[in-house]
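Fold sample X.
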Amino acid sequence: MENALNRAEGVALIRRIAEGDRQAFSDFYGRYAGLVFALIRRILGQREEAEEVLQEVFWQVWTEARAYDERRGSPEAWLLNRARSRAIDKLRSIRRRNETFVARLDEQTAAAPPDAVSNPGSRAEEQELVETALALLPDLQRRVIELAFYEGLTQSEIALRLGEPLGTVKTRMRLGLERLRSHFRAQRSS
């Protein structure tokens, strides 16, 4: 996860962005664009659409930096939450436009370009932590979480896709997220 020094630097950049500092925005973009693009691309699968959403996310950073509250999460988490939301909105828009479901992505298509990640060791470690945590979940819980996070499906859409009752999907999602939270709390305290 993001260490205290990197977190403090990210917070300082956001504060400067909130004051209209263009250099801070440039530095923030340089630090996080690769990570954000990788997530957006994994969700959308299309480079052009991902680039468009990346611009929207960083425009949102520029316009909403004053709203950032470091007590609610790290700069990275704040940014990735916005990126994920924007990417899912775009995915839903594409689905409505095409009136079809998006096919599941293969890993090669979803992978970030090698030069897009600012700190490959740190990012690989984070990815490994998430994959390890997901692997600890029972298959049915992991599947609903992956469909929601990586494909942007709502719980109703997941129920339709899996042919399961909505209540069952909601329960699996809740239990899976509780297990993930417990796992990450234990990781932080160790």
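Fold sample Y, listed below.
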Amino acid sequence: MLSQLMQAGLSPNVRSAPLTGGEPVEHWTEEAAVVPQHREHLRVDMVVREGEAVAGGVPVARLRDYPEIALVAPMPGRVAKVHLGPGRQLHEIVLFRDAGGDVRRHDAEAAGAGDGSALRALLQDSGLWRQFRARPFGRMPAPDAKPTAILVM
């Protein structure tokens, strides 16, 4: 009886057929943007200009205080608009898709050799460093920070 009282949430009755094991389908958006996260103030130095064609995964801007941390193009395309605020604070970098564009492949083999500095450089150059959060305020860690623990959710 206690288990019946403790149940919460919805139990939807879904009548759709499960997906079959077919080939995955790629869907590309026509427009993408590089923007700061909520309450993130990024002062950047631009690497590209408006109208320039860029490959996916190529740096479009670097952080002004930490130039080793790159902001990368999420897809191959053409830089349509760069909107910077006072002090070169990033508001957005808009890209339009280029159908025949190239994609940069990062060398993950060198980073997997056990050298922490190579892994750190790969994460910073590929744009993934910004996804890390440091405690206590949830900000991006400094480029030379060494974690005592990593929590994955």
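Sample Y note: Helices lie at 2-6, 108-111, 116-125.
Also: The longest helix spans residues 116-125.
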